[in-house]
Amino acid sequence: MKLLKLFVFSSICLSGLFLSTSTAWAHGERSLEPFVRMRTVQWYDVNWSASTVAVNDELTITGKVHVAEDWPNSLPKPEAAYLGVIAPGPVFLRKERWINGEAHLNSLPLKVGRDYEFKMKLKARIPGRYHIHPSFNIIDTGNVAGPGQWVEITGNANAFTNNVETVKGEMINLETYGTANGVRWHMLWMILGIAWLVWWVRRPLFIPRYAMVNKGEEDKLVTPKDKNLAKAILVAVPVIVLSGYFVTNSQYPETIPLQASLDLIPPLPEQADLVNAKIKRATYNIPQRSMMMMVEIKNDSQKTLQIGEFTTGSVRFINSNMNIDASHTPPEYLATNGMQIEPNDLIHPGEAKVVKIMASDAVWEIEHLSSVIGDADSRFGGLLFLFDDQGNRYLSSISASLIPEYK
């Protein structure tokens, strides 16, 4: 009876474990420190061409990033960064990739305070439903993920094709090309390794050999045959490796080695600094899940502007009084309560105004951004977007220390 109760209890615990993790497995990006997500690479205008694709169909991801001016002091500057995709395994094949309209083959240095536009083409490979993110892998910083969207791949995985034409005009399937040769080499080394182990294991091991050592007969542990076999293997292994190298080199004389250079892609043209926004004070109310900013905004443009959006850590807080398109943004990155602005007035040309911005939503906790107040670096950062009456957008990168409030 006790064993039955123990079995039932264990089953319930395991079921609870699986149920509790089933909805969180796709959001590992939330474990990254908030100050890294908010003050390194700031993502905006990210768009996925489709939410459902069939095997062999293409998915295009586009968007822009702003490299924050207030780059954390604890992190090295982005001297090398690599644009990639975060997905649960090889469910997509990356076909093409551009940054600012140029082909992006290797890592590239990012300039602090500047913007980059990216585009990636992916080919659907394995059916299923996956959370797909663009990401920048930055040297000595790690992988900084952008927003993610659920994408469903339909069809049959066996129908996937990945054919390319070689320099010699031969059409090959990269999914299977070289597999047989790889298996042969693995089998060769496995057989050689197992034979070497069997050679020693076939004889008595621990107790008899220990007794021989105690008798002072350790010289008899290794026989002349053992030494001759070891010498033969010592000669055979380099011969096999060098022979394989020369055969491969003669069979494939034209090869491209792994590249170690950097792509020197210039950032987007720098926009005129027509809007200057500076945070005077910022607090985060923990019980209310609400951030308050007192922001001084100077309008140096010739247009009348209005605050439309604040974006941080891929989360968008939108002014509900304005008609801003958010259809391409996954719902989990949209603050349902938007943001409140006091006074929510127009900012005229040449005018400087201090406004109070309230960004209140549970998304602070859901996306683990509120934990920035517990970091050694408790500064936050984001992008403030203002719009004129013609729909033109003006971007300002803002950052400040975040002071917690407990009531």
UniProtKB/TrEMBL annotation:
Keywords: Monooxygenase, Oxidoreductase, Signal. The keyword Nucleotidyltransferase does not apply. The keyword Oxidoreductase applies. Residues 1-26 form the signal peptide. GO terms for molecular function: monooxygenase activity. Pfam families: Monooxygenase_B. This is Methane monooxygenase/ammonia monooxygenase subunit B. It comes from Methylomonas methanica. The lineage of its organism: Bacteria, Pseudomonadati, Pseudomonadota, Gammaproteobacteria, Methylococcales.
